[in-house]
Amino acid sequence: MDRALKRVTLAILVMFLLLLLNTNYLQAFEANSLTTKPENDRASAEQSQIQRGDIKTSDGVTIAASKPSGPNGTYKYQRYYSDGPVYSPVTGYDTLYGTQTGVENSESDLLSGSGQQLALRNFLDQITNKAQKGATVQTTINSKAQQAAYKGLASVLQGSGHSGGLVAMDPSTGKILAMASYPSYNPNALASQNGVEVNKADQALQAQNPSPLINNATSALLPPGSTFKIVTSSAWFTEHSDQNANSEAQSPTVLTLPQTTDKLHNDQNEQCGDGSGKATLIYAFAQSCDTTFGNLGMQIGGTNLQSEAEKFGMNKPMDVPGLSAATSSYSVPNSPPLTAFSAIGQFSDTATPLQEAMFASAVANNGTLMRPYLVQQATASDLSVVQSTPPQVLSAAVSPTVDNNLKQMMTAVMQQPEGTGYQFNKNNEGGLAIAGKTGTAQNAMNGVSSAPDAVFTSYAPADSTPKIAVGVMIQGGGYGATAAAPIAVSVEKAYLAAVGQG
Q1: What is the DSSP track for 291-335?
Q2: What's the chain's Rg over C-alpha atoms?
Q3: If we measure between CA atoms, which residue out of 144, 138, 157, 156 comes closest to residue 212?
Q4: Quick check: is 162 in a domain?
Q5: Count of domains in the chain?
Q6: Residues 191, 196, 200, CA angle at the centre, nearest 5°?
Q7: Among residues 226, 233, 361, 458, which one is catalytic?
Q8: Count of H-run helices and E-run strands, the chain
Q9: Which residue segment(s) compose the domain that 407 sits in?
Q10: Are 414 and 460 within 8 A, CB to CB?
Q11: What sign does the dihedral 272-278-284-289 (CA atoms) show?
């Protein structure tokens, strides 16, 4: 009997020791990971006792805020998103499970009040018995431009089963002025304090195709089409300093490609220029002659085209807080014929609407490409600035001389009768001077529509210091001039009117 009791006592002692060791291990080594586990709602319940900071636009519109939940709930504050579908690519969402996206994720420490920048203020609030509140995060988004962007995308894409995105930038700073995606979703459904409702809403969103949870403005990769001719032209002028926009180039109606029986045709087999087989570069660019730029591409070579593309931001991960940005890419083709296709944005080239905005932004800013950014600053509850983002140069894309040629050519697209954007722009009410490049990308990869993808990149005003650059991509949208350009111009007009430049 004594021996049996000793064995039981020893077993209990061992179990207590193991329990003690496990408790200390969890507290010492696993506390952080357990706190952040989605299954642990204690952390979110504790966090909801502190009022999460607001997210605002640059012009002061509150697009995410926390309001009291009521006296009887576990959670003291409820997250709320104003105009949720319009701003969801910017705000993202914050769920009771701790899952976050967008600015809610990238600036969570500041919004929640737990950031090191707020430690002293939190301490002072505690000793003065003031309610703790997270910092307010001000984005670079302009509300008028964002509303115009979302409305424009919805008008083209609603009910189509396709997707699209738009990004607008300030060329001189890199501020993202608008970032819209369609289809979109309402983040309020994911901010519910009922776990069953959150799971139901998430499952419904996950089941939709195309997915509204994808930020098409920064994550959708489509062929750039003829907008890539900006890069091809840049590479050509960089290599040939004696050439300018009015220099002539071989512009056959049909380009015979070496090493193959394939031929490159212009859109609808049209002739480029007067049919002589030659045209000025500005004319070929405005008319978007594939044979001209396919031929130039083969002369430039894939390696040089890649180098030039990277100066515009391709093949470089975009580390932008608040964004999950896909990397636009240009791969060196393994033959001259494929190089010809890549030079017109039709081989394996891929770009996002953000990259399209960067094309125009670099040209608008005299050849200097600024790093895009979405968060302007964060302010504590006492209105002191605890974080701010200064403008940064990303690259010197082209020289001022080359840039001057590109400006002339992009203006000709919209203002010359042969330009692919002329028919749209000649009816442009208000007389806003726009420079741009259309793209109509044949895309067998999209698996959605036989219609090409519509692409447009532009900046305005083109007759003075540019204030805004816009990139639009519409999956299965058809011609860039008819599907994408009107949306970009509506955003440009809305923004310029909002800042007193319209």
Answers
A1: HHHHHHHHHH-HHHHHHHHHHTTTTS----TT--PPPPB----SS
A2: 27
A3: 157
A4: no
A5: 1
A6: 80
A7: 226
A8: 19, 17
A9: 219-374+391-498
A10: no
A11: positive
What whole-number distance in Å separates Cα of residue 414 and Cα of residue 424?
8
Q: Which two tokens stand for residue 340?
A: 């010809």
The β-bridge partners of 55 are: 64, 137
Q: Which token pair is 138?
A: 């001000």
Burial environment of residue 276 by CB neighbours within 10 A (0 to 12, 13 to 18, 19 or more): exposed
Going by pLDDT thresholds of 50, 70 and 90, the confidence category of residue 146 is very high
Q: Is residue 91 part of a domain?
A: no
Of 115-119, 290-294, 423-427, the poorest mean pLDDT is in: 423-427
Q: Please give the structure tokens belonging to residue 124.
A: 């002072």
Query: How far apart, in whole angstroms, are the C-alpha atoms of residue 30 and residue 50?
Result: 24
438 in a domain, yes or no?
Answer: yes
Q: Please give the pLDDT value at position 126.
A: 67
What is the rounded distance in angstroms from the CA atom of residue 476 to the CA atom of residue 121?
52
On whether the CB atoms of residues 459 and 436 are closer than 8 A, the answer is yes
What is the SS3 string spanning 436-502? EEEEEECCCCCCCCCCCEEEEEEEECCCCCCCEEEEEEECCCCCHHHHHHHHHHHHHHHHHHHCCCC
H/E run at residue 412: helix 400-415
With beta carbons less than 8 A apart as the criterion, state whether 220 and 326 touch. Answer: yes
Q: CA-CA distance, 312 to 325, in Å (whole number)? A: 15
**CATH classification at residue 326:** 3.40.710.10
Between helix 229-239 and helix 353-364 the angle, nearest 10°, is: 40
Six-digit token string for 208: 């939709």
- Is 395 among the residues known to form the active site? no
- Statement: the pTM of the whole predicted model exceeds 0.85: yes
Q: What is the DSSP string of 347-387?
A: SS-BB-HHHHHHHHHHHHTTTEEEPPB-EEEEE-TTS-EEE
Tokens, residue 483: 């599907």
Placement of tokens 């002659």 in the chain: 289
Tokens of 87: 């701003």
The dihedral formed by the CA atoms of 330, 331, 334 and 335, expressed in degrees to the nearest 10:
0
Nearest Cα residue to 386 out of 119, 18, 45, 154: 119
Tokens 């995308």 correspond to what residue?
Answer: 153
CA nearest to 453, candidates 145, 155, 154, 220: 220
How many angstroms separate the CA atoms of 320 and 222, rounded? 20
Per residue in 73-117, pLDDT tens? 678 899 999 999 999 999 999 998 888 999 999 999 999 988 888
As given in the structure block, the two tokens for residue 256 are: 């015979």
In a domain, 135, yes or no: no
Residue 239 backbone phi and psi in degrees, to 5: -80, -25
Looking up tokens 């997270």 gives: 134
- End-to-end alpha-carbon separation of the chain, Å? 96
Question: According to the model, what pLDDT value does residue 329 have?
Answer: 96
The pairing of beta strand 164-169 with beta strand 136-139: unpaired
